Amino acid sequence: MNKIKQWGSACAVAAGLLTAGAAHADVVSVSMTVDNSYAFFTGNLTSATTFVGTDANWPSVESYNFNLASNAYLYVVTASDKSTAQGFLGQFENITNKYKFYSNDPQWQVMSTGLGSAAPYDGTSTSLALLSAEIQDANGGGNPSLGWQNFTAGGSNGAGPWGTMSGIDAAARWVWYGAGNCSVTDPTIGGCDAGEWLVFRIAVAATPDDPTGTGQLPEPASLALVGLGLLAACAAARRRRS
Ligand SMILES: [Ca+2]
Ligand SMILES: [Ca+2]
To answer: What is the mean pLDDT of residues 199-203?
Structure first.
């Protein structure tokens, strides 16, 4: 390969690296239920922006399919009747990057608002503003749970008192927050109040290769820097040739 062809290849690779760093949308498929009720939103690190759905019947599994930016967050607002049992059970498939995760994925976070029954359960601007304010409160550590905390996993799908929820893998586990008067070892069993309403969240691009858990994958930024360096070299080579 002669010198001009080598520089041509390097310039093409540089342009490709810069394109790879651009944001893209992921297709996400969800099957979930909560004992006793939930409202499901998408958003970003600081705000809930879109209402996806709500349900207040634990024996039914709801399914949702949608596209969203690969750096987006999923937010699940939950509340219980503080009787018998409570939990969040779900299966989430990022169709784009072929990664499936469950309600017990370690990258989920949970926080308590302590606001009782006044939970945002619809897509009104009032509800989005309330949830966003609570998200920002938790981001700053000033909410009742002092920020975002780890959830506690209870039984797998099929465990009592619920039995098997169809459409969700047996590997998925019921999760809740082990605070308030809930058991720290299994807060899903025995009626209790963990400081409701609660909010669970995860970055939609949360995968084992996303060590920050933010959905902001470090790779594209590094590749973009390499691309910029190569483009500068290309420009220098062109100047030398001309
Ligand atoms: Ca349900
Ligand atoms: Ca219950």
So the answer is: 95
Give residue 194 CA to ligand 2 midpoint distance, Å: 12
- Report yes or no on 78 lying in a domain: yes
Nearest ligand, measured from the Cα of 34: 1
Q: Which ligand is nearest to the CA of 61?
A: 1
165 part of a folded domain: yes
Q: Could you say which ligand is closest to the alpha carbon of residue 192?
A: 2
**For residue 45, which amino acid is it?**
L
232 has pLDDT over 90: no
Structural domain of 168: 24-215
Query: Which of the pair, 61 or 4, is modelled with greater confidence?
Result: 61
Stronger pLDDT, 224 or 114, i.e. the higher one: 114
Instruction: Tell whether 119 is covered by a domain.
Output: yes
Q: pTM score, two decimals?
A: 0.78
Q: What are phi and psi of 181, to 5 degrees?
A: -100, 20
Give all strands (DSSP E) within the chain, no chain letters: 25-35, 37-43, 48-55, 62-69, 73-79, 87-94, 99-102, 109-112, 152-156, 173-176, 198-203
pLDDT in tens, 159-172: 999 999 999 999 99
Q: How many domains does the chain have?
A: 1
Give a yes or no: residue 127 inside a domain: yes
Ligand nearest to the CA of 32: 1
Residue 35 alpha carbon to ligand 1 centre in Å? 8
